[in-house]
Amino acid sequence: MKLSEYLKDRLPAVFISLGTLALVLIFLSAFRIPVPAIAATAVLLGLGAVSVTLWDYFRRRRFYSELNSCLEELEEKYLLAEVLDEPEFLEGRLICNAVREADRAMYSRIAELERQGRDFREYIELWVHEVKLPVAGLQLMCHNDGSTRYTEQLQRLDDLIENVLYYARSGSAEKDYLIKKVPLQKAFSEVAVRYRSELQERGIGLSAEGLDVSVMTDEKWLCYILGQLIANSIRYVSDERRPEITVRAEDFPDKTVLRFRDNGIGIPETDLPYIFEKSFTGQNGRSRSRSTGMGLYIADKLCRRLGHSISADSVRGSYTEISITFGKNRFIVTE
């Protein structure tokens, strides 16, 4: 806060003080007080007014400078009331008390919203577990009867139910994951077995290379991400050639990159920058299937939560390659 700004804000008070001083001098002159006495009185009153103004300005400037400094340095602005010292003047104390009251109201509201969100997630998780039972029963019935007529739709339904569950958990994934060394071969094999019937029915070739490495991740979340990639490859196969899915891992000193590639219809260049955005379906989603645009969004969100990175490269009508990069911690001794 600059002195000019402070004086400009207190301009009415300055004019009132100057007017009062003028009236006092006129009053003293009317009583024929000697001019030296009037001058001395004017000087003393002026010095008193200037001293009071400067004293008030400096204590306010100290408080507001600290306020601005805290706001600039704090990443979490709502913690301002916790680090701000209470000033000496009344106006500053009123501001501090108002900020603290606002913080208390905000914390109370946040706690209520968190409770509501937690209750909703618990209900969704319970619903998902309940609804997966009849779906699993239908899949088993189809398998026992040797019927593949409804297998694809049941698998699609199961994938959508998984999306609901993992989306509900993705906001608080840190409470539900266990980072450990996971063999890529084991994780990919589990996902491939799950989609085996649909892959065979569509005649999709599946090959893997270099998966004899382990990465630090959560196995359950990784399997879900790989499942989303396989489901997308199945959904967007090309009718012009035999569909193929190739998975390979490249191991580097500081990272491991898992590349998931298919020879499907590919992604248009204009859509590629947006495929990891929430609910983005793009041209393929509108023309080939009723896509929700949530699978890759959730995969990207989980990767970021786990400390991985995911990216995509594609050529329309040729291929799509999704790469997942797993970092390595040099302090972890690998076997």
How would you characterize the overall build of this protein?
The chain is of the alpha+beta class and 335 residues long. The protein has a domain of 177 residues: Heat Shock Protein 90, CATH 3.30.565.10. The protein is built from 11 helices and 7 strands. The strands form 2 sheets. The chain has a 5-stranded mixed β-sheet with strand order 2-4-5-7-6. Strands 1-3 form a two-stranded antiparallel ribbon. Helix 7 packs across helix 9. The two termini are 61 Å apart.
Features:
Heat Shock Protein 90; alpha+beta; 11 helices; 335 residues; two-stranded antiparallel ribbon
Q: What count of helical segments does DSSP give?
A: 11
Strand order of the largest sheet: 2-4-5-7-6
Unreliable residue stretches? 331-335
Shape: elongated
First CA to last CA: what distance?
A: 61 Å
Task: Give a quick summary of the entry.
The protein has 335 residues and is of the alpha+beta class.
What is the topological layout?
Blueprint: H1 3-9, H2 11-30, H3 35-73, H4 80-83, H5 90-145, H6 151-170, E1 180-183, H7 184-194, H8 196-201, E2 205-209, E3 214-217, H9 219-235, E4 244-251, E5 255-262, H10 282-287, H11 295-306, E6 309-315, E7 319-327
Parallel strand pairs: 2-4
Antiparallel strand pairs: 1-3, 4-5, 5-7, 6-7
Helix pairs in contact: 2-3, 5-6, 6-9, 6-11, 7-9, 9-11
